[in-house]
Design a protein that fits this description.
CATH class: Mainly Alpha
CATH architecture: Orthogonal Bundle
CATH topology: Tetracycline Repressor, domain 2
Distance between the termini: 74 Å
Order of helices and strands: HHHHHHHHHH
Number of domains: 1
Structural class: mainly alpha
């Protein structure tokens, strides 16, 4: 028999979205494009423009360089989010079951597929702009993979929060290196 409190609790839980709506909810909760898009656009525009200025180019950077820098950087940040979902799944399931993956909105396997497609898009964009970008793309991916495994010293890092923060924030200059390479590496 259901108690009145249980009946109210069940009645107030909204139904789980299905289909594309799941991804809209996931995006809104875990990777809000409305917030991240403008920040990544400013980040990548600044990186490409600053590189162009340092090379003493008087012209506005090519739109292709800006577009590849922006899309690739946005996908790097998406990959960071997805990597965190994998890395933190057990803790989130135990301590934050309301988050998208533990509550079953999307599955880790589905996020893995999204990550593969994001990486493919990054490779295609790099090849289209300049194959010379691939080594820089690979460097960011390697650091991201090491972060996902917590550099194989996860317990130690958890006991040393400053080293944890530094090791995880070091990906930012690597993403910036790639973004600037969309100008200087392409220019030769």
């Amino acid at each position: 028999m259901t108690t009145p409190v249980e009946a109210v609790a069940v009645a107030t839980v909204p139904p789980m979205p299905t289909g594309a709506a799941r991804w809209w909810v996931y995006q809104r909760e875990r990777f809000p494009l409305v917030a991240h898009g403008p920040l990544v656009a400013a980040f990548s525009f600044s990186a490409v423009s600053f590189s162009s200025l340092l090379r003493r180019e008087g012209d506005f950077p090519a739109w292709q360089n800006l577009a590849v820098s922006f899309v690739t950087a946005l996908l790097f940040f998406l990959l960071l989010r997805i990597a965190d979902e994998f890395k933190d799944f057990e803790d989130d399931s135990r301590w934050r079951p309301y988050r998208a993956v533990p509550r079953g909105l999307v599955k880790l396997r589905e996020l893995g597929v999204v990550a593969v497609f994001a990486a493919i898009i990054q490779v295609v964009l790099a090849l289209a702009l300049s194959p010379g970008l691939l080594p820089y793309l690979l460097v960011v991916w390697i650091w991201l993979a090491l972060m996902t495994k917590e550099f194989f010293v996860g317990d130690w890092l958890k006991k040393h929060p400053v080293q944890y923060m530094v090791s995880h924030m070091a990906i930012m200059p690597l993403i910036d290196l790639y973004a600037t390479a969309c100008d200087w590496r392409v220019a030769g």
